[in-house]
Structures are given as C-alpha cells and as structure tokens.
Design brief:
It is a single chain. By secondary structure, the chain is mainly alpha-helical. It folds into two domains: about 1-120 and about 185-260 and about 370-505, no CATH class; about 510-620, no CATH class. It is about 60% helix and about 5% strand. The chain contains 21 helices and seven strands. The strands form two sheets. Strands 5-4-6-7 form a four-stranded mixed sheet, covered by helices on one side. A three-stranded antiparallel sheet has the order 1-3-2. α8 packs parallel to α11 (about 235-255), α8 packs parallel to α18 and α11 runs antiparallel to α12 (about 260-275).
C-alpha cells in the first residue's frame, strides 16, 4: 500500500514538474525573443504580430502544460485527501456552494480592477456610461449642453442642446446605484457575482450537480469574463441578464408552471435588450421561441395567466424604450446611436469618433462580400478561442455535449443564432482583454462545455461498466478541464494581466497626477489624443478625455483645448477655478502648465478633427 502511494505521488510530482517546465520554456521564449511577450494589441480586426507569436507558442506549450497538469490531477484523484474533498463537496448544499462561488465571483474582478487596472478606464466608452449613470441617478435622461459646447464635445456623446450618450440606457441604469453611492467600480463585479447562480441552477436542471459545479468553475476561471467584469463596459451586465433569461426559460420548459417565472423571464430579457440589443436578440430569440413552445403544454386560464404575466413587464420595458427615444432624440423609433451620427455630421465631425461616416453603412455591421465576412468572423473566432478561457482550444468539449441529451439543443440554438446574426459583424471589438463583441456567447459555450464534460464522463463510466478495459479513465474529462484552467492561470493569464496593467498604469496617470497635484478647483485643457500610444508598448483604446459630471461640479474639469485664446474665453465662465493645459513629457509624464504662461505662439492649436472650422473667439457662445 505504501509503495503504491509513494509511486503515485512520484507520478504526480513528475507530471507537475513536466507541466511547470513547459510553462518555463514558454516564458523563456518570450523573455529572449519577444520582449517578455509584448503583445502590441491595439486592434479591433486582425491580431498584432506580437500577439500572434504569443498565441503560437501558447498553443504548443500551453497545451503541453495542460496535459501534464491533467495527468497530475487525474492521478491525485486516488489520494485520500482528494476523496475527502469530493465527499465534502457532495455534502455541501447547493445554497452554500452558490453563495461561496458568488463571493469569489465578486472578489476576482474587484481585485483585477484595483491591482491590475489600477482603477483606470481602458476604453473611452466607460466614461460615457458613467456620465449617463450619474444622469439617471439624478433623475434625468439628458443634461443641458454647456456654454461653448465645443470644449465639451467628444466621441460617443451627443451635444446638440441636449447632452447625453449614444448608448442604450440599460447598463447606465444598472450602474446608477453605484454612481449615486460613489462606488461605480463595484457594480460590474456585483453583476458578475450574480451571474453565478443562474449558470449553476441552469446546469443543475440540464445536466445535474456535477455540470453545475463545473460550469461555475469555468465561469470564474474565464479571463475574458473576469477581466471584462473589472471594467465598466456593458457586456458583463448583458451576460448577467441573459444568464437569468436562460435559467427562467429552462425552468419553464422543464415543467415549472409558476406564473411569476414568466414575468421574470420577460424582465431579464428586457434588461438584456436595453443593455445590448444585438446580443440580447441573437442569444435571446431561441430562448423566447423555447418559452413559446412551452406554452403549448398549458391550456385555458393557465396559458392566459402566463401570457399576461409575460406581457406586463415586457410592455412596460417596451414603453420605456420608446419614451426614452422620444425624450432624447425627438422620435419614438429614433435611437441615440442614429442621432450620434447625425450630430457628428451637423457638427462637421469635430471631436467625433469618425472623420466621416457614409450614409449607407451601419455602426456595427458590414454587409459586403461573403468571403470578407467569413474572414472577419474567422479572425474574431480565433481571438475569442484564446481569450475566453485562456485555453489553446476553448471548444474542445463542445462536440461531446450532444444535441438532445441534457437538452443541449437549448444552448446550441443560442450559439447558432449568434453565429448567424453576427456573421457580418465588422469586427470582434477591442483586443485589450479579448474580442468584447463576442463576450456574451460565452454563456452558451460555458453551458455546452460543462454538459460536454458531464456526458463524456458518463460515457467513459459506461464503457467501464461493460467490462471492457478503458483506455481513458472516467476522471479524464474533468481532469483535463482543471488542467487547462491551471495552465491558463499560470501561463496565459499572467501575460494578459501584465498587458492590462501596462494599459491601466498609463491610462489612469493623468487623473491620478491631477488629483495629487491640484487642491483647488481646476479646469484642465487637453489635446487629442488624451494618451499617446507612444507611452505604452501595449496599445490602448483611450483617446478622449474623461467626461465630467453632468452638472460640471467636479473639482477637476477636463475640457478640449482649442486655442489658447479660445481657452481663455472659456475661463471667463469659471473665474473661481485655476486653468492649466496638459502636455506629455518625452518620458510620458503628464505635466500641467498654467494657461497664463502659454500663448498661441508657443502652444499649438488643438486637434479638432473633421471638416468644421473653429468659430472666432468673439462668436463662442
């Protein structure tokens, strides 16, 4: 007995040593050839050369490390401590497990936010969302455009007399409680934590408790999801709402006829729609179709009650959607996205996200040759494959999920619907932590991965029960999953976290420096881009100054620099504030010069962009 235990422990140690050696070789390749894996990044389409090399070597040595770690985990499954741990998990209630996993789901992105990102934004969108959250917290859908509005124009904002963001109000509404309390950074981690229960409960109904635990672990270990939850982008909250939509749909489909479930389904889907309509429709239409099919088992009063319970919140959210459009843009069906393009044209594309915008093009889709669409989708899927879990192959367990077993057709239909509706998407989104436009499909992939592992495990156990000598242990699927997670957290995630830390360090530097330097209320004039890409080897997506609060009461106001003469004209409106202009030193340190110490001869005009000319100072209103 002792001999077998000693041999097993030596085998575990050998597997672990081989896995760590694989990761060491992977790291040394980067150290000696690729500037410690300087990823470059900064694209929304094709991958940068540094990132491609990183993925190439990760595919080889990450896969090797995962296999060796899987061997160690499978072998350790025979140890007494492993059996004891598994037994304790089985004896733990679902409620306790969900609570513990949700707490972990809250802490991980919060730690990433403050330790890796250093509290900084990584994309210009985040500031626009916070602005709208502050507006909603004050009970408004827009602010009045400030005087001399050119100083306050910036991408993703409409400033036509009404000042508001181009984005749908679902995420700002969910962000508003945090904005009102001064802790907006807590909201995405909270919604990420609240995504754990529906994933767990959905898988519990579809594939049993083993699937539920596996799915929750995969969710918590997925870098795309945890890095995303550390930002203030909208994708985490959309995933949260869609996860609850999937849970309520499955619960109704599996025979639970309580009326409130239909209201909950309509509410969660409506929230997802108001956050990110394209993702909500792509993933939610199959769920709504499943719900409609479930109604066929109801009759008479029960069916009418279900329809009424669904219709009440659905109609309420629909009415709110149209009323918001009317108040903001003046038309029930006119979206803020559309108004943003119109305003950019009216404003001569000054301080706009585009220097021009064709009238026959949508913001997100590019309906060109099918070959081009296939290429764009292929690149996005390749980026998604690595970024989602940090595995060399994220889709390895999907074929084993089946179609009818465990009702796998439900998440399959969600995934297929997204693939069809987003085939012509122009790009996968920024690559700072992954293709953000593909974040929400993580939900069906997590469900299918957990179901695939469960089904494969059952199949291997069935082979064993027939008396045939199995080539692979029934522990292998789950061991491989844990091995892939271990390799990702030890090899892939540190490199991505290092890149994020580099972006966070430079992206938040102006605000951190200004807060430390200015004790009195100040107006800071900044040029475009807000942060030069020369200041970071890992390219970022922060080109615009941050938005101010809707009432311009922040101690530090960030405004566009036009010319020194124009800037001094603006300061007539703020006589109680100091005025400085921000410049970057050759060492990429933001420096603040008193406005009174510069003039047009030694300080160039700001980059206004577009074709619109700058009004004379005397005409600034």
């Amino acid at each position: 007995m002792r001999s077998s235990k000693r041999g097993r422990r030596l085998q575990i140690a050998g597997f672990l040593l081989a896995g760590m050696t694989s990761l060491w070789i992977f790291q040394e390749i980067g150290n000696h050839n690729l500037s410690t894996y300087s990823l470059g990044l900064g694209t929304t389409h094709f991958m940068s050369q540094g990132y491609v090399f990183f993925l190439l070597f990760w595919s080889v040595f990450g896969a090797l490390a995962a296999l060796f770690f899987s061997g160690a985990i499978a072998t350790a499954g025979h140890e007494d401590w492993a059996s004891h741990t598994i037994r304790q998990l089985r004896e733990t209630s679902d409620r306790s497990l969900i609570l513990a996993l949700s707490l972990i789901g809250f802490c991980i992105p919060l730690l990433i936010r403050w330790r890796v990102l250093m509290g900084a934004d990584i994309a210009d969108d985040e500031s626009a969302y916070r602005f709208m959250a502050e507006l909603l917290a004050s009970g408004r859908l827009y602010a009045e455009s400030p005087p001399m509005k050119l100083f306050f124009d910036r991408a993703f904002m409409i400033n036509d007399g009404k000042f508001y963001s181009q984005y749908f109000l679902g995420w700002p509404a969910l962000l508003a409680p945090g904005a009102a309390l001064g802790v907006p950074s807590l909201m995405n981690p909270l919604y990420s934590a609240l995504t754990v229960p529906p994933i767990y409960l959905t898988l519990r109904r579809l594939g049993g408790r083993r699937s539920a635990v596996i799915g929750a672990i995969i969710f918590l270990s997925a870098p795309l999801l945890q890095f995303g939850a550390a930002t203030q982008l909208s994708h985490t909250s959309c995933l949260f709402a869609l996860a609850w939509t999937a849970y309520f749909t499955v619960r109704i489909y599996t025979g639970d006829d309580r009326w409130w479930l239909h209201s909950a389904l309509a509410t969660s889907f409506s929230v997802a729609f108001l956050v990110r309509p394209s993702s909500a429709l792509a993933l939610g239409i199959p769920l709504l179709a499943t719900w409609l099919f479930s109604l066929s088992s109801l009759h008479g009063k029960a069916r009418r009650n279900a329809l009424a319970a669904f219709a009440a919140p659905a109609l309420g959210f629909a009415a709110a959607f149209f009323v918001i459009n009317m108040i903001q843009t003046g038309g029930f069906t006119s979206l803020a996205y559309q108004r943003a393009v119109q305003y950019a044209r009216e404003n001569g594309f000054r301080f706009a996200a585009w220097n021009w915008f064709p009238k026959d093009r949508t913001l997100a889709m590019s309906f060109g040759p099918i070959g081009l669409a296939a290429a764009q989708t292929g690149v996005s899927l390749t980026r998604f494959n690595y970024a989602l879990f940090g595995w060399p192959l994220a889709f390895v367990f999907l074929p084993f999920a089946g179609w009818r077993s465990h009702r796998s057709w439900i998440p399959w239909s969600m995934l297929i619907s997204f693939a069809v509706t987003h085939f012509y998407m122009r790009n996968g989104g920024i690559d700072t932590f992954g293709p953000v436009h593909y974040l929400e499909p993580a939900l069906p992939i997590i469900l299918l991965t957990a179901l695939g592992i469960t089904r494969l495990t059952s199949w291997l156990r069935a082979i064993r029960s027939t008396g045939l000598a199995p080539l692979v242990s029934a522990r292998a699927p789950f061991a491989l999953c844990l091995g892939l997670i271990a390799a990702s957290w030890l090899g892939y995630i540190p490199v991505r976290a290092m890149a994020l830390n580099e972006v966070g360090a430079v992206a938040g530097l102006p605000q951190r420096t200004a807060r430390a330097e200015f004790e009195e209320p100040t107006v800071v004039f900044v040029q475009r881009p807000f942060i030069s890409r020369k200041c970071s080897q890992t390219n970022h997506f922060l080109f615009w100054r941050p938005n101010n609060d809707p009432d311009l009461q922040n101690p530090i106001l960030w405004v566009n620099h036009l010319t020194v003469e124009h800037d001094k004209k603006l300061m007539e409106l703020y006589p109680d504030r100091n005025a400085v202009v921000m410049v970057w030193s050759p060492q990429c340190i933001p420096t603040f010069l008193p406005l009174s110490s510069v003039d047009d001869s030694n300080f160039p005009p700001g980059r206004i962009g577009g074709s619109g000319e700058l009004p004379p100072v005397e005409e600034m209103q």
